[in-house]
Amino acid sequence: ASDMADKPLVSSKAAASCPHEEIIELYHQILPTGRRVRIWNDTRMAKLRARWKEDPKRQSLEWWAKFFNYIAESHFLSGKTATTGRPPFELDLEWIVSPANFVKIVEGKYHRETAA
Fold it and tell me: Is residue 37 a contact partner of residue 28, using CB atoms and an 8 Å limit?
């Protein structure tokens, strides 16, 4: 096992072992107002796997649980904000793990009301 030092930080094994089912389970538990995941196709898998791979910190279920709890604190993301003439925002896991949205969530764009 002396060749371990040459291996990159994110091994392909870590990337391949993205626990989709467990993350979906956490999403359902922590964000019950979100749309249920019924079909987890290749497109959606690729998005979640990419977010998992991007940062070693994200390669744990604890991180995802914290992340979903953080999302739950947002009135907008959890559908508690009503805009006249528009239905409340309906969250879904694919939306969360889409690159642009993911970055906005992490940067706190949807948490203005909790920061105020």
Answer: yes
Name every residue whose Cβ is closer than 8 Å to that of residue 67 and which is 6 or more positions away in sequence: 105
Predicted TM-score (pTM) of the model is 0.81
Count of alpha carbons within 13 angstroms of residue 100, beta-carbon side:
0
Q: Which residues of 44-80 are buried (b: 16+ CB within 10 A; e: fewer)?
A: beebbbebbbeeeeebeeeebbebbebbeebbbbbbe
* pLDDT tens over the chain, length 116 residues: 444 444 444 445 555 589 999 999 999 999 998 999 999 999 999 999 999 999 999 999 999 999 999 999 998 898 888 778 888 888 999 999 999 999 999 999 988 765 54
CB 19 within 8 A of CB 25: no
| Cα three-residue angle 89-76-91, rounded to 5 degrees | 45
Rounded to 5 degrees, what are φ and ψ at 19? -80, 75
Residue with tokens 């991180």: 63
